[in-house]
Amino acid sequence: MTTSGTVTFSVSRDDICKHAMYDCGALGIGETMSDDDLQLCAFRLNLLVKQLMGTIDLAPGLKVWSRKDGYLFLSNSTGTYSLGPSGVGWASSFTQTTLATSAASGAGSIVVSSAANISNGDNIGISLSDGSIQWTTVNGAPVGTTVTLTAVLTASALTGAGIYNYPPSNQARRPLQIITAVLRDSNSNDTPLWFYNLQDYESLPSKVNTQNTGDPITLYYQATLVNGILKTDVAAAADTTKYLHLVYLSPIEDFNSATDTPDYPQEWYRPLVKALAVEIAPAFSLPVTQDMLQAKAEALAIAGRSNPETSTMFFQPKDDDYTRWGQF
């Protein structure tokens, strides 16, 4: 017996819509979807995949395939950061170099040790002598190792200062949920960070006191619209050569065109078809049958358990047990 030797089977947006229409009886084999029917199905499909984001999938895991890495550069003037499309210093990856010669306040260009990874339009952060990182963009292609900036420097920068850059395409997305966070120093040593809930964060007495600076130890995250809001337990960072490395659950990508493939692994293709069939049937004045509901439930249950989380678990006595044990 000869197998195919491939594991690349995939489906497109229109494949999912067509087979969902087959399943609910809105389309016969060999028939063609009308433009109106396709638009309806594509709209409902986007509604469906947006509801199956993050941990909302009846699954025991945390959607391992939608985990992304994000890097957040810290500020010496605030402990609140925007994570999303307009976040400053929030990237999915970045490159770095150093300043080859010092630059004065008001300079419109800098000379770097290497411009190999710097391009026109990149977001660029320059470590200034006042301890801040100034973010602007690269204005034109570098000439040799000279990089022209869109905004002039607001303070001087010293030789050897850190230079960080990333293209707009590497702007990280708004996290649905942050899974892990570490504080990484210039030697790539990591310090794990912890998370507050809202009540614990609001109970902090000095979280916005400008005298309360240092390395963040604990974070609080709100997945607000457009940009998420990350808050630290310090009002500002004392050392901006350190940055945060976050692992987060990313929103699922949209279906925008006929050939778009799902932002899901293969085991989710069938659930998308079965769930969409149930979603669109009423729009075609067709009944949602018990067989359709069972097929949807079965497909979702199987897919939801296909990538279970592996985690560490430990047990400890309750507080009253400690008191009781202390009597022996």
Can you walk through the features of this model?
The protein is α+β, with helices and mostly antiparallel strands and 328 residues long. The chain folds into three domains: 13-52 and 253-304, no CATH class; 66-91 and 173-249, Elongation Factor Tu (Ef-tu), domain 3, CATH 2.40.30; 95-169, Beta Barrel (Elongation Factor Tu (Ef-tu), domain 3), CATH 2.40.30. It is 21% helix and 22% strand. It is built from six helices and 17 strands. It has helices at 13-24, 35-51, 198-202, 269-280, 290-304, 319-325; strands at residues 67-73, 80-83, 90-91, 95-98, 109-111, 123-127, 133-137, 146-148, 162-166, 177-184, 190-192, 194-195, 213-214, 218-222, 228-232, 236-237, 243-249. The strands form five sheets. A five-stranded antiparallel beta sheet has the order 3-1-17-10-11, with no helix packed on it. A four-stranded mixed beta sheet has the order 2-15-14-12, with no helix packed on it. Helix 1 (13-24) crosses helix 2 and helix 1 crosses helix 4 (269-280). The protein is elongated, with a radius of gyration of 26 Å. The N and C termini lie far apart (69 Å). Residues 321-328 have low confidence and may be disordered.
Short description:
This protein has 328 residues and is α+β, with helices and mostly antiparallel strands.
